[in-house]
Amino acid sequence: MRLVLLLVAVLLPFSAMAADRGGFSVIGEWEWHPLDGVCPERFTYRADGMVMMQSGEERLVKTYVLTKVSAEVYRLTSTVKATNGKPDCRGDLSPVGTKSTAFVMPTKGRAFLTCSSMDKSTCFGTAKAVKRKK
To answer: pLDDT tens across 64-100, in order?
Structure first.
């Protein structure tokens, strides 16, 4: 855990800006559910381009960039910068340096679909913003 915190402190000044300047933003805490019904994941996106992810026992620190590619679709790319080395909810590991890309399609409310292409038929999960207790 100390390694993860140290890497966050070191990487913060170098991370990419993450929010789209024209509306939709992933900044905040999200609960993501795969369409196949396997365990949910929790993501906390920050304005400085960092995201903290929890899946099963796995804890990741990633950098991310959100880019608008059409009126209703955004590309979300991320790179693992630190991991606790434990398996995610599917039993998989995400080593440092792992890169991923998903296409994000905002839906009603504070929610979005995640897809492997700009076609909705390739969607594999949904995310909903976690409401904070006041």
So the answer is: 999 999 999 999 999 999 999 999 999 999 999 999 9
Q: Out of 17-21, 25-29, 32-36, 53-57, which region has the weakest mean confidence (pLDDT)?
A: 17-21
Judged on CB neighbours under 10 Å (0-12, 13-18, 19+), 45 is buried
Kindly state whether residue 9 falls inside one of the protein's structural domains: yes
Give which of 134, 103, 116 is closest to 26, Cα–Cα. 103
The per-residue pLDDT for 22 is: 53
The CATH number linked to 124 is: 2.40.128
Q: Is residue 60 part of a domain?
A: yes
pLDDT, tens digit, for every residue of 103-123?
Answer: 999 999 899 999 999 999 999
Instruction: Supply the range of the domain harboring residue 76.
Output: 2-129
Token pair 């381009």 is found at 49
CA distances from 79 to 36, 83, 97, 99, 127 (A): 24, 11, 6, 4, 19
Count up the domains in the chain and report the number.
Answer: 1
